[in-house]
Design a protein that fits this description.
The complex is a heterodimer of chains A (290) and B (220). Chain A is 64% helix and 1% strand. Chain A has helices at 5-15, 19-31, 35-54, 70-78, 87-104, 120-132, 136-156, 161-164, 170-184, 189-203, 219-238, 247-260, 277-289, and one strand at residues 108-110. In chain B, the strands form two sheets. Chain B has a six-stranded mixed sheet with strand order 3-2-4-5-6-7. Chain B folds into two domains: 3-135, 60s Ribosomal Protein L30, Chain: A; 147-217, ACT domain (Alpha-Beta Plaits, 2-Layer Sandwich), CATH 3.30.70.260. The chains are: A mainly alpha (290), B alpha+beta (220). The interface between A and B is large, with 52 and 32 residues.
């Protein structure tokens, strides 16, 4: 995988190939598979993302009982046309909740990049596809853009909450979705990288503080902010607003912030919301029920 | 790692480490035993013991032992599925020591033919796993490659027999590890390969003098 967004952009310029193709070709070479087989596989992943949204079951709750049914509440509220974030944004919010709740309720999802952040990418991508009438092939290309960005973040920093806090999970998902959204709206490589940098900068320092150690509170709702941050970052970049700090340097900063974070704030369930009196009471009650 | 580890895997939630990784540990145990499992004693360590229930780690491990894949929607109902398939299992909490990865499980299993095996597996995050112990021997393999596990007496020539067989079949060795209990005691070879090893070659290995048991794991 590429270890720098600058390298991907340089390769795009050198070969006159689009970002997604550069990412795909490098992976085909490394994994020894054909471009066709790779594309089919990526397309099936997009299909699985759509299914994870369609198969939402509003009656389910997670094993702990802490999450479930909220996406349906939001959908009903959305129907009143009273939401501050109306139209396109309201659909992104509902989808992010649907998929993140499905994950907590043991339904099938696509980890992108992780299971805890699985709502961000489908929320942005499926809503863009619907709004713009794009083909599944075009959406598949957008997934290559996202995976190229995610690969660079994995190589330079981390995608694991235990290592880098929530900025590494929801932050990375948001950066990947922002780059993909820019691609789908016709933005160039520089705009894709800038959207990624802006999205990561906005969530930098976000801690991983799951109540009772479960991928539920606050993870499910954070998928909403990750998705909304992705579309606002994409819009900034598409308007020609660049990240002041080069994207690779933003990723390096995220890594160093992760290392500065106390272990209590990295998926140990000992800091942040998990350490609040209510967070601890919930954890205690769950432990007693085991 | 490749791009399909970044966008993917397609899996049943909620956690790549506590759910998908647990399914993979179960799968690995089933493949290593090489037959349907009749009974399994499952010991959960660390975070698997503390947060396993909320993450469905218990149901995921049993699903893996039954051969379900990480994206199989029957995972949440694996206990009922086990009953139907005649797999009897019990859960226990254990401390595998400070050195053990926090997401570890030890599984003691018995197959339909009476074959037994115990293994310790750890889920490293992102759905990646490592098997660190088989039948009390320290090992280390990821399950990402076709892997041959050979138990033999610690005597000269076994490594040469195995590697020349692999050469004969044009199979390239990715990694190779050797362990033994002590000089002249029991030894174990763990060989990760770039290609699949044919079943008849494994049978041939199992019949060699001094070879006690041959296990095989295919990531397919």
């Amino acid at each position: 995988m590429y270890t720098s967004l600058e390298d991907i952009i340089a390769q795009c310029k050198k070969t006159s190939l689009p970002f997604w193709k550069v990412v795909q070709l490098e992976d085909c070479q490394e994994s020894d598979i054909t471009e066709e087989a790779s594309f089919e596989k990526m397309k099936s992943i997009y299909q699985a993302m759509k299914e994870s949204d369609e198969n939402y079951d509003a009656t389910l709750r997670s094993a702990s009982g802490m999450v479930g049914t909220d996406a349906e509440k939001l959908r009903q509220y959305q129907a009143n046309n009273r939401m501050f974030c109306g139209g396109f944004s309201s659909k992104v919010m509902v989808r992010a909740l649907r998929v993140a709740e499905s994950n907590a309720c043991m339904r099938r999802i696509v980890a992108a990049p992780t299971a805890g952040s699985c709502g961000v990418m489908p929320a942005v991508l499926i809503t863009v596809q619907e709004a713009r009438g794009l083909s599944d092939d075009e959406m598949t290309r957008a997934l290559y853009v996202a995976s190229g960005i995610g690969g660079v973040i994995a190589a330079r920093a981390s995608l694991a909450g235990a290592e880098g806090g929530c900025q590494a999970e929801i932050g990375s998902a948001s950066a990947m979705a922002a780059g993909a959204a820019v691609y789908l709206s016709g933005g160039d490589e520089t705009a894709m990288a800038s959207a990624c940098a802006i999205a990561l900068s906005n969530l930098m320092g976000l801690v991983c503080d799951p109540v009772a150690g479960l991928v539920e509170v606050p993870c499910v709702k954070r998928n909403v902010i990750g998705a909304m941050n992705a579309i606002s970052s994409a819009d900034l970049a598409l308007a020609g607003i660049l990240s002041r700090i080069p994207p690779d340097e933003v990723i390096d900063a995220m890594k160093s912030v992760g290392h500065m974070m106390a272990p209590q704030l990295r998926e140990t369930g000992q800091g942040g919301l998990a350490a609040t009196p209510t967070g601890q009471r919930l954890a205690q009650e769950l432990m007693e029920n085991e | 790692m490749n791009i399909f580890d970044i966008v993917g895997p397609v899996m049943v939630g909620p956690s790549s480490s506590h759910t998908a990784g647990a399914v993979k540990i179960g799968n690995a145990c089933r493949k290593l035993l090489g037959e349907e499992i009749k009974t399994a004693e499952i010991y959960l360590h660390g975070s698997f013991a503390a947060t396993g229930k909320g993450h469905g780690t218990d149901r995921a491990l049993v699903a893996g032992l039954l051969g379900l894949s990480v994206d199989d929607e029957r995972i949440p109902d694996s206990f009922a599925w086990a009953k139907e398939k005649g797999l009897e299992f019990h859960f226990h909490t254990i401390s595998l020591g400070e050195d053990a990865h926090p997401n570890s499980a030890k599984i003691v299993m018995c197959g339909v033919s009476g074959k037994t095996m115990e293994a310790v597996g750890a889920s490293l995050g992102g759905g990646r796993i490592v098997i660190d112990e088989i039948d009390g021997h320290r090992v280390n393999f990821s399950g990402e490659f076709p892997t041959v596990i050979i138990h033999n007496l610690d005597q000269p020539g076994h490594v040469a027999e195995v590697t020349s067989m692999l050469q004969h079949k044009s199979i390239n060795i990715a990694t190779m590890q050797l362990y033994r209990t002590g000089r002249g005691g029991h030894a174990i070879m763990v060989i990760e390969c770039d290609q699949e090893v044919p079943a008849n070659s494994l049978e041939w290995l199992a019949k060699l003098e001094g070879v006690e048991k041959v296990g095989y794991y295919s990531p397919k």
